[in-house]
Amino acid sequence: MSSKTRLVTIWLAVILVLDQATKLIVDRSMPLYHSIPLIDNFFNLTYIRNTGAAFGIFAGSAEIFRRPFLIVVSIVAIIFIVNMLRRLPARETGLSTALAFILGGAIGNLIDRLIYGEVIDFLDFHWSGYHWPAFNVADSFITVGVAITIFYLVRAKGEDPFAAASR
């Protein structure tokens, strides 16, 4: 097993265990829509089920369309990320880690969609009348992974970090 494959595999295992374990704990220990304030006027654990995509996009769509569509989109995204990882030179450990974060998050949320038909969310931030949509560990890893990927692509200054021959 190459060092890149080992790195990605370890991150995937960590992300999937953290994501699925936290969702299982919330699902088994909290009633749906229940909220537990942890930091007053800033952070709650709030158990919700997101039937849509990010920020509830497509949540109002008919389930017969929504569920298969979101599952197919997730699978296509996972295939795309795996192909990007395959093209990435082994020395690009930062970008490999970022893509592993995105991949792990995508797989974590796909597992929910396949099992429940929706995604378990519970991290609930709010401040001074502003409320961020609830999210989960998988979403957190996706967001951090995207931010790191953007950093690496901007830093590449037009070079293709996925092309092994470009360096």
Sum up the overall morphology in one term.
globular
Task: For the record, give the distance between the C-alpha atoms at the N and C termini, rounded to a whole number.
Answer: 23 Å
- Which regions have little confidence, pLDDT < 50, spanning 5+ residues? none
* Mean pLDDT rating: 91
For the largest sheet, list the strands in their spatial order: 1-2-3-4
Oligomer designation? single chain
The beta-strand count equals 4
C-alpha Rg (nearest Å): 17 Å
Helix fraction bin: 55-70%
How does this structure look, described?
The chain has one domain (3-160). Helices cover 57% and strands 14% of the residues. It has helices spanning 3-29, 63-87, 93-116, 137-155, and strands spanning 35-39, 43-50, 119-127, 130-131. The protein is globular. Helix 1 (3-29) packs parallel to helix 3 (93-116), helix 2 packs antiparallel against helix 3 and helix 3 (93-116) runs antiparallel to helix 4. It is built from four helices and four strands.
Could you give a short description of this structure?
The protein is an alpha+beta fold. Helix content is 57%, strand content 14%.
Topology:
Blueprint: H1 3-29, E1 35-39, E2 43-50, H2 63-87, H3 93-116, E3 119-127, E4 130-131, H4 137-155
Helix pairs in contact: 1-3, 2-3, 3-4
Descriptive labels:
167 residues; alpha+beta; four-stranded antiparallel sheet; 4 strands; 57% helix; 14% strand; globular
